[in-house]
Sequence to fold (293 residues):
Amino acid sequence: MIRRLMLAAAVAALPVVALAGDARRDAILADYAAKARAADKGFSAFSAQRGETLFRTKWTGGDARTSSCTACHTANPRQPGQNAKTGRPIEPVAVSVNPKRFTDPATVEKQFTRDCRSVLGRDCTPLEKGDYITFMAGQ
Amino acid sequence: MRPLTFTLLATLLLLTFPARAGNDWMPPVRDATVQKECGTCHMAFQPGFLPARSWTRMMGSLSDHFGEDASLPDDKTEIIRNYLTANAGDVVNWGRAARYMQWVAPGGTPQRITENPDFLRKHRFPESVWKNPKVVTKSNCVACHSGAERGLYE
Fold:
């Protein structure tokens, strides 16, 4: 009986855990949206399509080994990747296969800072960050 | 009598080999912050490969970490520096750590584990091995040493 109750509780908690992940991601997106609006009053919403373009564009300002996000994350973000500089395996970025993605603000900001400088040769704007997360959340 | 001798010999061998393996072992990273922050872009290398003063230098120059900006918030830098220096090669000074330390110049602050002569003498491979797409760099220990994260480099 107790086991059954525990199982029921665990099953009931599952969607809550999943939703909690979404809420944290939503909060990160809301923060980037506020910053995007502050930078441009015309900002209306993030775009998964712009995020995908950002993901697939070959840039020239950064490290030659990482001229595109796909250099490490592969052309399919649902697949695991590999750090092009160190060989370290990278977990998929697509939220559908890796729901932990974009749920910790400090980790998200740290990774954007490092990767944008490495790939684009500059910091990403809040608009670009929000677009990227929106693209990955739908992948 | 013979089977008994054999059993005794086998037991002796079994007892001897793990002991040797143990002497080759490098104490693994056990701190969660170090594992996460030092183990995202590359393997979290065991602190026993470098002396404490090397880690102090490295943790003071994260904005240019082998050409990468690996800056961290001060509180995390502090936790990591403390862990690395407390478990550094000249502190452990036993087994493989001791063998690496014997090549470090007094007062020297080497940064690349892969330049230590003890590393070099065991990694004399043709260029093709290093060019393997699974390897990418000499610091990618786990590409060949599956137990590297646990400190096993057999």
About this structure: Chain B has one domain: 28-150.
